[in-house]
Amino acid sequence: MKRELVMHGVYQHFKGNKYIVEDVAIDSETGEYLVLYRALYGEGILFARPLKMFLGPIDKEKYPNAEQKWRFELVEEKDKTK
């Protein structure tokens, strides 16, 4: 199953916190796509993570009790035009 990133979507990390996807960047050294996402809690820190990892499944061996299938799951789509 191929997952697609929703720009400006709100995603929930499997550990519970929510984030909004701000943009996608390309690593100038490796050419890898990175998701830029901002915490919707605390100081609203901006994070970067490889797209493949952002959309990837949870490592069930490392986190056997995780309830989500995916590391980040879409919980809300934002319309930036409003």
List the helices and strands and how they pair.
Blueprint: E1 10-13, E2 18-26, E3 33-39, E4 46-50, H1 51-54, E5 72-76
Antiparallel strand pairs: 1-2, 1-5, 2-3, 3-4
Key structural traits:
SH3 type barrels; mainly beta; 82 residues
Structural features, described:
The protein has 82 residues and is mainly β. It has one domain (14-76): SH3 type barrels (Roll). The chain is built from 1 helix and 5 strands; from the N terminus they run ββββαβ. It has one helix at 51-54; strands at 10-13, 18-26, 33-39, 46-50, 72-76. The longest helix is centred in the middle third of the chain and has 4 residues, at 51-54.
Order of helices and strands: EEEEHE
Which overall shape is indicated by the principal axes computed on the Cα atoms? globular
CATH architecture: Roll
Mean pLDDT: 93
Summarize the structure.
The chain is mainly beta.
